[in-house]
Amino acid sequence: MAIDARDAAGFYATPLGRRAAALLRRKLERLWPAMAGLSVLGIGHAGPFLHAWRECSRCVALSPSHMGVAPWPSGRPGLACMAEAESLPFADLSFDRVLLVHGLEQAENARRTLREAWRVLKDDGRLIVAAPNRRGLWAYAESTPFGHGQPYSEGQLARLLASLLFQVEAQATALYAPPFTSAPMLGLFELFERCGPLLAPQFAGVTIAEATKNLHGVIPAGGRVSFRRVFADQGG
After folding, report:
1. Residues whose CB falls within 8 Å of the CB of residue 194, separated by 6 or more in sequence, listed in order
2. pLDDT tens digits for 1-58?
3. What is the C-alpha to C-alpha distance for residues 85 and 90, in angstroms, rounded to an integer?
4. Neighbours of 194 (CB within 10 A)
5. What is the homologous superfamily of the domain 5-234 according to CATH?
6. Residue boundaries of the structural domains of the chain
7. What predicted TM-score, i.e. pTM, was given to this entire model?
8. How many Å apart are CA 170 and CA 172, to the nearest integer?
9. In which element (H, E) is residue 98 found?
């Protein structure tokens, strides 16, 4: 069951949520360090992360209808809207970057959500998906947005993207600290993050994949095809 967008916003206003968001923003900024002049679409509950890229030309935070919509974070201009993630209200090739945070695991139909992301992403664009790792503690913490919906292993996420004409370019992990709210545990948050990849890499709370569009075999020589038609021909 998907978490409500306002409940997700409430989590990111807590000390644990603020630490988790800051850590994930750093991971995302390393993957996408130069964003000046680019257009970005966030699907799911992406507002806490989109304001990392203040230099981009356009930021849209889209909440799927079944999650509802939360206000855009204060201090950051942008558009927050609500629509069906399986039928995005944007033209083909509209965005340079698409970010899914709390968007894939909570999707009513994950494959259709990714198909729509593929359609609105420019041919040279990039996608990032951040989803709860099925082996991590965060996937079972229902007090956080990561404890709702369908978790993924690194391999499952990579295979899903590949099956939908994405080429995985990089993978990363994050949130090794357990989702505990006590002050002593929060004080160890950064220590867990430094030691986790060395001591227990399989137990990260979040798995992250960056991907590009795999156009080989999709566009015939000398012509172009409709992106909607590509996935319609695949069925489902």
Report:
1. none
2. 678 889 999 999 999 999 999 999 999 999 999 999 999 999 999 989 987 888 888 8
3. 11
4. 10
5. Vaccinia Virus protein VP39 (3.40.50.150)
6. 5-234
7. 0.89
8. 7
9. strand 95-101
